[in-house]
Amino acid sequence: MQTCHHCEAHAKCVENVPILANLNQEEKREIIEIASSSSFKKGEMIYMAGDEGGTLFILHTGRVKLSRLNASGKEQVLRFVEPGEFLGELSLFSSLPLSHHAQALEETTMCVLHGKKLKALLEKFPSIAFKIMDELSRRLEKAESRIEDISLSSARKRLVNALLELVEEGQEIILPMTKGDLASQLSMTQESLSRQLATLQEEGLILLKGHRRIIIKNKVELVEISQKE
Q1: Which long-range contacts (CB under 8 A, 24 or more apart) does 10-14 make?
Q2: pTM for this predicted structure
Q3: What DSSP element (H or E) covers 114?
Q4: Residue 219: CB partners within 8 Å, gap ≥ 6?
Q5: Which of 21, 27, 159, 214 has the fewest Cβ atoms within 10 angstroms?
Q6: Could you tell me if 97 and 51 are in contact, meaning their C-beta atoms sit under 8 angstroms apart?
Q7: Rounded to an integer, what distance in angstroms lies between the CA atom of residue 163 and that of residue 176?
Q8: 93/90 Cα distance (integer angstroms)
Q9: Which CATH architecture has domain 153-228?
Q10: What is the pLDDT of residue 112?
């Protein structure tokens, strides 16, 4: 990890963060004074389960994977963090150590707010704390939906739901993660994921192109599978 203080990238990081959107320029400059900007190489760990918390990381560029290891050492992908999003926030409201791992998936830069300075910032600018809480509630709702999906839905339906979520508009998906990470997030093996993708292709619903490109050929039927199965 490399750290630079008060550099241009750091200022841009603070400027473009959604949870700081309601602050004026003077308030943002105050945040720049107490924050730092850190960069991580591809594959580098940002933090690990068991590390001390109390730090808020806000992603400026790159992508980050959050995961846990079960008792047998198998990785469970929790979510992927995109630019403008933040991580490490749960430790702000608890004295417990961090419960998951965070790993840079590519060259990554972050705006970092530490410990006591961060708590003083939240006291001075309550809007930031409210935005964090709002995002946490959204994540909790999404996590509950995913747990319900895993508990009650077939592997086929879980995959279809994921494809529909990834495609949004248009017909093409470029997977933003490896198929192994996608399988982990859907609580299935990579072999099961490959079989399910092959079946959807045989049924004419999708077309697989290379390792990460998927063309949606029949979105209407995919939606029906999502709603009925």
Answers
A1: 10/35, 10/36, 10/37, 10/111, 12/60, 13/37, 13/58, 13/60, 13/109, 13/110, 13/111, 14/111
A2: 0.70
A3: strand 108-114
A4: 164, 167, 171
A5: 21
A6: yes
A7: 12
A8: 6
A9: Orthogonal Bundle (1.10)
A10: 87
- Give the count of beta carbons closer than 10 Å to the beta carbon of residue 81: 23
CB atoms within 10 A of CB 115: 13
If you search the block for the tokens 């508009």, which residue do you land on? 169
Euclidean distance between CA atoms 182 and 122, whole angstroms: 35
The CA distance from 178 to 149, in Å, is: 21
Residue 148 belongs to what H/E stretch?
Answer: helix 126-152
Mention every residue, 6+ apart, whose C-beta is less than 8 A from residue 19.
Answer: 58, 86, 128, 131, 132, 135
Which residues have C-beta within 8 Å of that of residue 22, sequence separation ≥ 6? 127, 131
Q: What is the predicted pLDDT for the residue at 205?
A: 95
| pLDDT < 50 regions, the chain | 3-6
In the prediction, which pLDDT does 123 show?
A: 84
Q: How far apart are CA 105 and CA 150, in angstroms?
A: 25
Core vs surface per residue 160-193: b (16+ CB within 10 A) or e: bbbbbeebeeeeebebebeeebbbbbbbbeeeeb
Q: Report which DSSP code applies to 51.
A: S
Domain 2-150 class in CATH:
mainly beta
Cα 101 off chain centre by: 12
Q: Where in the chain is the domain with CATH 2.60.120.10?
A: 2-150
CATH 1.10.10.10 occupies which residues in the chain? 153-228
